[in-house]
Amino acid sequence: MNHLVRASARCLRPASLLWRRAVPVVPVPVVPVGRFLSAATDMQQTLGEMVKKDKVVVFIKGTPAQPMCGFSNAVIQILRMHGVEDYAAYNVLDDQDLRQGIKEFSNWPTIPQVYINSEFLGGCDILLQMHQNGDLVEELNKLGIRSALVEAETESK
Amino acid sequence: MVVTAELIREKLLKELAAVHVDVEDTSPNRCAASFKALIVSSRFEGKALLQRHRLVNGVLAEELKEVHAFEQKTLTPQQWETQKPQ
């Protein structure tokens, strides 16, 4: 019964919050978690928590200080231009499970990947186009982050 | 599976009923590791950028497993008309 609750909850993403809240009110026998949750499912839950933890989250190859791919570098540079400094960056090259897991989690085949406010924004192309057409400034605004580019423009007027 | 620019182009033309597709192999030795595509299709109308890219990724799901990078620009025929270099 317990595994059924979990299995059905898993289909509803984000499932992590849902079933954790449900557990205390449904008196079910305690079973070892590992028996029903595979490593891949654990990773999907971890990812759900990772993208919620910070307002801006990026999954890249390398680190912000040393990106290992031109596209990851482009994402870092765009964020830098907008003065976004407070973001979480995860290096997928450090962890094969993370690298595969995030592709499944986002249903997106490539790295880098950008999350804003727990929502998948897109990869490098989308971030670049949103940077070019001004949408990124608006997205950041919604988070209460004032883009450094807007700041610079206001000052020069 | 050998992924070529031509294969990607054919697939996008057919499955997205695209009116224009340019695909370029952007890997240093043209070794089919990365591609850049411009896709013009009326299927993109009324769709946000993320949805357009998801549509393309869906068509190329198998191919994208093989390549390192895939850059895409997705335009509606109307956007294509206004952006086309004269």
Lay out the secondary structure:
The complex is a heterodimer of chains A (157) and B (86).
Chain A: H1 2-11, H2 15-25, H3 33-36, H4 39-53, E1 56-60, H5 70-81, E2 88-91, H6 96-106, E3 113-116, E4 119-122, H7 124-133, H8 135-142, H9 148-156
Parallel strand pairs in A: 1-2
Antiparallel strand pairs in A: 1-3, 3-4
Helix pairs in contact in A: 1-2, 4-6, 5-7
Chain B: H1 5-15, E1 20-25, E2 34-40, H2 49-59, H3 61-64, E3 69-75, H4 77-83
Rough outline of chain A: elongated
Number of distinct beta strands of chain A? 4
How would you name the CATH homologous superfamily of the largest domain in chain A?
Answer: Glutaredoxin
Task: Please report the number of helical segments of chain A.
Answer: 9
CATH homologous superfamily of chain B, by name?
Answer: BolA-like
The side-by-side strand order for the widest beta sheet of chain B comes to: 1-2-3
Biggest sheet record of chain A: 4 strands, mixed
Q: CATH architecture of the largest domain in chain A, please?
A: 3-Layer(aba) Sandwich
Main pleated sheet of chain B? 3 strands, mixed
Mean pLDDT metric of chain A:
82
Any idea of the CATH topology of chain B? GMP Synthetase, Chain A, domain 3
- Helix content class of chain A: 55-70%
- The coarse silhouette of chain B is globular
Q: Order of strands in the sheet with the most strands of chain A?
A: 2-1-3-4
- Count of folded domains of chain A: 2
Subunit organisation of the chains: heterodimer
Radius of gyration of chain A: 19 Å
- CA-CA gap between termini of chain B: 38 Å
CATH hierarchy class name of chain B = Alpha Beta
Structural class of chain B: alpha+beta
Helical residue percent band of chain B: 25-40%
